Here is the input.
Amino acid sequence: MSLSEIIATDQLRSRPRKRAGNAPLRSMPRVAPQDGVTLRDALRARCEEALLRCSAQSAGISIFDNNDLDELTWAATAGALAPYEGRRFPRSNSPCGLCFSYRSTQLFVQPHQYFHWMAENNVHINEALVTPLIGQFGAFYGTIWVMSHDDLDIHFNLDDADTLADLSRGLASTIRLNDIGPDPDGRPV
Here is the structure.
């Protein structure tokens, strides 16, 4: 399978919007971090919101490692891929890395057929929608993403891309200000 076969970003424009039926989700209040809440918990709350608002099966926030330019950490995850939270994966050979290269939201169809590390780690994906986390002066911190796995009726559209763009606002600054790194046990935050 070639890279051009898994990148389906152009399909977003032709897919019907679904917002008319989701007005209550659009007006949902943003989950705000409370005092004493860890950065990981705040990021996880944003993932839970993405999961709900996009009707996805998994959601996550990937953070690029400052010490290893070719790795990223799934800093927060929700849904089917929640057990992978804290795991490190290759940046250059991933949907997140491609999102970084294009510097825009990307839609992928069955990316596990192209990125062999996904299949090797039992990460099977029907669709993945990935949005960059871009901070001040264009600095790139990572991505926020949603995925579908075994439900073939889930197809992301421009409404979902708008939702991820909305959820991404301020995340790069939050991550930079909190200097994500290993927690006291040595695990990435």
Notes: The domain at 39-178 is CATH 3.30.450.40 (Beta-Lactamase). The mean pLDDT is 84.
